[in-house]
Amino acid sequence: MSNIHVSDNDVEDMIIGVMWNTGSDSSALQQIDVDGDVITKKSTAWFDRHPVWGGMKRCTLTVDGVPTFGSNARGDGLTLDGTAGQVMVRVPRYYIKSEKSGNYIKWWVSPFPYPGFEVHPAFKQRGGTERAQLYVGAYAGGLAVNSSGTLYMLSATGKQPWTGTAMGKLPFGNGVTEIAAGDEVVGTTSGNTCIVVAVHKASGDWGTNAAGFLYVKYPGADWINWTNSEDIQVGGATRAATTGTGEALRLTRQDAETYCNNIGSTRWGCENIWTLDALTMLYLIEYANWNSQSTSVGIGRGVVDGTSGTGFAGENNGAHDADTNIGTNGTGTGTGTDGRTPIVYRGIENLWGNVNRFIIGIDVLDDAYRVLKRDGTGTPKCPMDEGHYESSIAAPVQYADPANPDGYAKDILYEDLSKYLILPNLGGGSDSTYLCDQTYWHKAGQTNIWLAGGFWGKTTYAGVGYRVASNVALTSVRTCGCRVEFL
Q1: 3-state secondary structure the chain
Q2: pTM (2 decimals)?
Q3: What's the pLDDT score for residue 7?
Q4: Least confident of 205-209, 243-247, 318-322
Q5: What is the pLDDT of residues 42-96, one digit of tens each?
Q6: Where are the domains of the chain?
Q7: CA distance 330 to 136
Q8: With pLDDT > 90 as the criterion, what percentage of the chain qualifies?
Q9: Do residues 345 and 331 touch, judged by C-beta distance below 8 A?
């Protein structure tokens, strides 16, 4: 509980919610006051002054969770390339309440304790301790390696999001001249050309016999193994030689969690289901419309109109001047064409679009959703162990072509466990009605994982309500990455 004394009237003035008529095909929501009465939609400036929305700011975060803030929510004055720490967005703790009556669902957010409200479960995760804030990556996680050779996720501008099979590992020896991140390396035998993302020198010294691993991203189609003992050149000059064949790096949901843990502790991890929908709720209350891709009632399409391509075909973090083109409140888009440029919501780039995000802390089975315990004492894992989750009463919707194909969602599962979550449970919508976003249903007989956001080729399918429940734990594909969180 907060020990800040605020008068009841002041608290009530800062409580704001949203009401959704699930019986209407309109994507519009209505903002409501503390009593549930419809109010005139609040301005962006009002939200900028609010303790929760206005408190969402970019920062750099040390391994131990010490933040450094810039001069505004956009992060002006910060070093965003990762050299000063993980680039994160602080989300202040908030209290939440929800009710359902007939076709109407209401959600409220309060910055302070208030009768009938509870701390959002997102702020209790990763240890069961109530936190004054949580931090989420300002960007999708990218590959990094520390001095001991341990791989970890890095939220930073300029990084290519780490997705399955889009990064490779190449052993090298005989290092005579240093190879650095950003170098284009060429194999003289295989003809492979790759861009170096990170270098781990495990032994020896540059200039004579440095040895270790190059971590690379590569253009073109699938990974083609380098051959053993071929020269590695940069700019036509030999820098080292391979000491084995290259390999593609997978990235499953559990891999993502592990690489995020490797930042420093299990307080670091892959974005969990409660964090995802704590952010979704803030967006929905502020914009009061499901149609997040609309430029009139939302922010924009996001990076969703690219071709499927081969390899990683999305955009690097911070592309199209997204770091500087957004407003000082951290919201806006990059420059360029809508559908090809990042969207940013209060410092969080690509809340939808560019890459599908692995969401941990939710498993989808035939009989129930298993959701990370609301009190925060469960351990995020893929899949979760017994005793670490709560189960829904209702069963997830199952895919059945043609009887129940994947499609745009029009309603969500609402029960005690899921009243603060967005779990689509009915199809039949469109890209401009109901939730406006695509859902991929659970596959019978499988334990499925959860994905959110949509990737670079998802067009109108993507958005703040886009959800996928049809992949399995070992899924490792070029379209799926993750966002880092810290509590």
Answers
A1: CCCCCCCHHHHHHHCEEEEEECCCCCCECEEECCCCCECCCCCHHHHHHCCCCCCCEEEEECCCCCEEECCCCCCCCCCCCCCCCEEEEEEECCEEEEEEECCEEEEEEECCCCCCCEECHHHHCCCCCCCCEEEEEEEEEEEEECCCCCEEEEECCCCCCCCCCCEEEEEEEEECCCCCCCCEEEECCCCCEEEEEEEEEEECCCCCCEEEEEEEECCCCCCCCCCCCCEEEECCEEEEEECCCCEEECCCHHHHHHHHHCCCCCCEEECEHHHHHHHHHHHHHHHCECCCCCCCCCCCCCCCCCCCCCCCCCCCCCHHHHHHHCCCCCCEECCCCCCCCCEEECCEECCCCCCEEEEEEEEECCCCEEEECCCCCCCCCCCCCCCCEEECCCCCCECECCCECCEEEEEECCCCCCCCCCCEEEECCECCECCCCEEECECCCCCEEEEECCCCCCHHHCCCCCEECCCECCCCCCCEECEEEEC
A2: 0.96
A3: 52
A4: 243-247
A5: 999 999 999 999 999 999 999 999 999 999 999 999 999 999 999 999 999 999 9
A6: 8-138, 166-249, 275-486
A7: 14
A8: 92
A9: yes
Residue type, 397: V
* pLDDT over 90 (residue 301): yes
Q: Which two tokens stand for residue 302?
A: 């996001």
